């Protein structure tokens, strides 16, 4: 009687462990799919893939012609902010090009090097832009990214999804997938050993 109870408890434990392993594998596959349709397209679409050194030529704040924060539209919700324009000397080619913060900055407003958030305080935005401009004037040489194919004649300060960030995004689903597979393998080994012991 005790033996039957132990076998029943063992089978229940194996079933739960197997369900846990399958659930982890299923969740990791969903995470892979989510990353594949959200992060990977942004990474592959970026043409600024090569790192080089940029030297600041000038950093100016255009107060007379403020930029719009909603992709240049004249909507009522659009907020105005001073336009920071940073021009740098590209070490790789020696060209004078405009610097943008990220790939998204160029899409949101190609006239400005920095685009603040939509809901930020105008005074805080003004102070931040002045601080950024002074930092560029202070630290004139820094790493940046350019397009080696020449389709974009400008550079960006940082990529939204660098290779290291993409690897980090794939790390957690990979660990979950590996853990789920290990659980399934251990359950199958346990079942095989149990059957082998019963046969002997």
Automatic annotation (TrEMBL):
Keywords: Glycoprotein, Ion channel, Ion transport, Membrane, Transmembrane, Transmembrane helix, Transport. Pfam families: CaKB. GO terms for biological process: detection of calcium ion. One of its GO terms (cellular component) is voltage-gated potassium channel complex. It is a multi-pass membrane protein. Its main location: membrane. It is found in: Membrane. The keyword Membrane applies. One of its GO terms (molecular function) is potassium channel regulator activity. The chain crosses the membrane at residues 20-43, 166-187. Belongs to the KCNMB (TC 8.A.14.1) family. KCNMB1 subfamily. This is KCMB2 protein. It comes from Asarcornis scutulata.
């Amino acid at each position: 009687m005790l033996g039957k109870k132990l076998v029943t408890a063992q089978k229940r434990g194996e079933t739960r462990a197997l369900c846990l392993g399958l659930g982890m594998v299923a969740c990791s596959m969903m995470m892979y799919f989510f990353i594949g349709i959200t992060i990977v397209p942004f990474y592959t679409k970026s043409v600024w893939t090569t790192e080089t050194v940029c030297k600041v030529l000038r950093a100016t704040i255009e107060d007379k012609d403020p930029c719009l924060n909603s992709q240049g539209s004249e909507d009522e919700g659009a907020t105005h902010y001073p336009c920071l324009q940073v021009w740098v000397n590209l070490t790789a080619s020696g060209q004078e090009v405009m610097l943008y913060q990220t790939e998204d900055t160029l899409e949101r407003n190609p006239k400005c090097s920095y685009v603040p958030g939509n809901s930020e305080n105008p005074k805080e935005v003004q102070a931040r832009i002045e601080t950024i401009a002074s930092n560029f004037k202070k630290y004139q040489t820094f790493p940046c990214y350019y397009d080696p194919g020449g389709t974009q004649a400008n550079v960006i300060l940082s990529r939204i999804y660098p290779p290291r960030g993409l690897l980090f995004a794939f790390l957690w689903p990979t660990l979950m997938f590996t853990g789920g597979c290990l659980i399934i393998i251990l359950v199958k080994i346990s079942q095989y050993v149990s059957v082998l012991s019963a046969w002997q």
